[in-house]
Amino acid sequence: MLKNNDKNVFISNTEWTIFRDDVIRDLYNKMNNLDLKIFTSNSIIKKVLSDLNLNRLSKTQREYVITYIQATFYLITESSTSVRGLVEKYNIPRSVFKKVRSALNLTGIPSEEFPLIRDAIILDIENNLTILNLDDFTVDSIVIEVTPILDLDNLSKTQRILAETYIRACFLMLANPNISALALAEEYNISIDNFKIIKNTLDLTGIRTKDFPPIRDAIIQDIEIKLTSLKLDDFTVDSIVIEVTPILDLDNLSKTQRILAETYIRARFLMLTNPYMSALALAEEYDVSIGIFKNIKNKLGLTGIPTNQWSDFKSSIILIIAKELNRMVLDNYTVDSIIIEVMPVLDLDKLSETQKSLINKYIKTIFYMFTHERFSTIILCETTEIRDYDYYEILHILEKHHLYVKPSLVKTAKSISFNYRFENLHDNGEIAEVIKSFLISIKNFNYPFEAFIDPDLRASNLKLIGTPQFRANVDEIEHYFISKQVLTKLQKSSKIILYADKIYQSYIEKYSQIPYHYPIQSQFLQCFDYIVAVEVPVWKFLGKNIINGKEKLVFQTGHIDFLGIVDNCILIFDYKQNKSEILQSIPQFFCYANLLNSCLTYINKNLNYDIHCIGFTHKEGYRFEYNKMSPALLQYTKDRPYIKGMKKNTSLYEDLLNFLNFF
User: Fold this and answer.
1) What's the predicted TM-score (pTM) here?
2) pLDDT per residue over 378-392, tens digit each?
3) Please, which residues have CB within 8 angstroms of residue 466's CB and are 6 or more apart in sequence?
4) CA–CA separation, 437 vs 443, rounded Å?
5) How far is residue 185's CA from residue 379's CA, in Å, rounded to a whole number?
6) DSSP letter string, 407-451
7) What tens digit of pLDDT does each residue of 232-288 get?
8) What 8-state DSSP symbol labels residue 458?
9) Which residues contact 259 (CB under 8 A, 6 or more apart)?
């Protein structure tokens, strides 16, 4: 019941209920005549409130009206999201949504009766979709095709919209069988809960998640037995699935779980046929989750030394290998005979087979490093089949630099390494010379490589997200920084967006998968003459820590997707999957600029230049100027202490002060 605690209440509680429902209906009609895409929850309040006659209301009653405006706005603009989802997302009481729905007669079938109706609708949708050629439809046209055959007369408008969402979700699941429900939910802005409801209704869940591990382990064991009995050279990563699947007992599994079983076949096949590649390298190269490889290694006892101890062990082994090679006359050995010579002196009893294979690769790499000093990094990595990352780590451990590294075109690969094109610097005067010097220092491994192994102090950890109870609102982020005139939305006709979309659509057509960074990065360096480098490491010294009695230097680090320069303006580009990721990553982009500025100032502190940060997807992009962003970013995070920083016990505001040294 409304509490009339204000000194001047002009209408009674009974009158208020009638007035409230009239106001809600008036709000709904006004909003339906507006293009709500151009409004935020705050700007719609200003737009609609001015048209309402609220003179007879108390201050408390006016505040209720503002809440009803927000609730009505979200019910219209996010019609595919449940009321429960809206309550959690926007922290508006459930009772407010109930009052709005009641006033607008949106209640339809009572909530407690809806699941049965909903399940019947989902079954009807599935029956009709399976008789259609889905290639003839899009995610929107399928709704027009299927909706007329469903019995939706007794449903509210919200429930009918939910039914349309189920049509879309079912269609997407059938048309994209190799894409997870989570990926579909993120790509098409459909709640993951809707996919879960469909999977439960259609009995696609299979064995319960908590009961699945023993079944999974049995499947992995069966796969191992079968693969070890085959000559794997006769198969490809796809044909091996056809060979092995029939021997597995998959009848009680859901479609998703069966696809997982096929992934375990592929993953184990890749591990056996690529013994010198780490699980991480395989995961990146073949787009298989690292968790899949971990499950296989745990079940088959291939784990060896735990990952958290491997780094120290690896460093000591590399030093021993180098010591052995230094005392030998290497001209007397080949790459195969050197492995036979060195392996017995190493203590490898506790290692897994994969780890032993890696040690083989380290011996081979160090041998080439010592005997072919004038080979380029790229030739060495291709010859030894070692990743750039591992190669540079060996260089770092041995405190060596390669004498000659030749720039090359970026290769299309699952993992893109640092690369550059000096010719794209053009004639940009002194700033171009400083950037060239900076890139050469990276090429020559003249930077704190070990700092980039520490995952805690990466710029990518700085996000405007919040907590499950108090999420940062993406629309609010956008409105706040645009209203402060420090953030600009790019035109959709921007060349970088159009080109990203071209690559994005081409990749989906070719592979039926959503592309992540590597297809975009692999082509941008060649296609834009102002982009000079990709995957550029940037860093900033923060101080020293004493850990276990040893002094450790502490750095803030990051990797810039694309570094560009136009006239005297440095451009930092970062590719994201959606608009939310861009806006939530404003602190990350800002940190990149801060780190880059620190690196360049170290080379020449008298330079004058601007740094602009651009976050973009294949659909949209945003841009801000580094020097103008700090006051707004600090104030935003200071006013919202629930937005956490790199640790759960610190706010992002505190981290920005500590790490970026604003004051």
Assistant:
1) 0.45
2) 666 666 666 655 676
3) 472, 640, 642, 643, 644
4) 10
5) 42
6) --PPP--SSPPPEE-GGGG-S-HHHHHHHHHHHHHHHTT-S-GGG
7) 989 998 899 999 999 998 888 877 788 889 999 999 999 888 876 777 778 877 878
8) B
9) 177, 178
